[in-house]
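Subject: sequence -> structure tokens, single chain

Hey, anyone have a minute? Need the predicted structure for the following. Not urgent.
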Amino acid sequence: MLGLGQHDIGIDLGTATVLVYVQGKGIVLREPSVVAFNRDTGQIFAVGEEARLMLGRTPGNIVALRPLREGVIADYDSTEKMLRYFITKACGRQGLLRPRVMVCIPSGVTSVEERAVRQAALQAGARQAYVIEEPLAAALGAGLDISEPSGSMVVDIGGGTTDIAVLSLGGIVCSSSLRVAGDKFDEAIVRYIRREHNLMIGERSAEELKIHIGTAHPSYRGEAGMDVRGRDLVTGLPKTINITAGEIYIAVQEPLQQIIGAVKEVLEKTPPELAADLVDKGIVMTGGGSLLHGLDLRLSEETGLPVHIAEDPVSCVALGTGKALTMLDVLGQSNPSEGRQARLNR
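Reply:
Had a minute. Here:
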């Protein structure tokens, strides 16, 4: 049977990917947050990677969907079933003790949205459910010492939300949560190709374009291209075209400018002493969206601050939730029904 400490679980409940951290084992599970179920019976058909492969390819009675949109629960029942599946898969069926679970939430969620996340975790089998705000978890996971009276800035670009925060003395001094992130980049690419090439492509194809040839900095707009397949909107027939890196750069400008604008707004709200700290320490980027080619250089040029990408940006939030589980006594979370967010109260 798992020990009490090993039975604690940290969950990065992302719009695009769910990562599960088990105490003593590290990250044990990393799967797309997609659920496929039978529309007639409500029975779960597939979860995770298996369900992701079904997106846009299911018959009428099977529905494949993402139960989270823009960082919050869009389909409560599917989220609960997905969480139950991942908790069981991570812990195994051998443990008799139900786990304590720490789930991260975007910094801008409402109390109703926060309660929905907590309730879903309890319904999915958690003994106790705690929440921690994403920028705080990202900072812990990136190895930043946020307990000192010194400013640290984190920009966490996930699938559904971008969370920006300046932290000091274990708490969030000023922050912004933007419902613009990786998914909006994909949607912008879909719109651009439909507008410029009369070709309808799926979000999966758009994501592949973003990953392989996407760029956020004008100096990287080479002639590198990639073939993409879709449906010609004029003839209605399947068609293949070649898209260049320069076109993807143009396509992602709108969501990119929104993120850069939000970072500048948080910097404007930052107290002068903490802003002075950031001149040396710079900005730490986490989340899968931070891997967009040239984004760190673009953000550095726009803000005038050094920008660093965390060592394992995709895993930072999950690692941070795991660290937070070992610090519940100092995080102000001894009672999981109280406390808006986890904080380091030293």
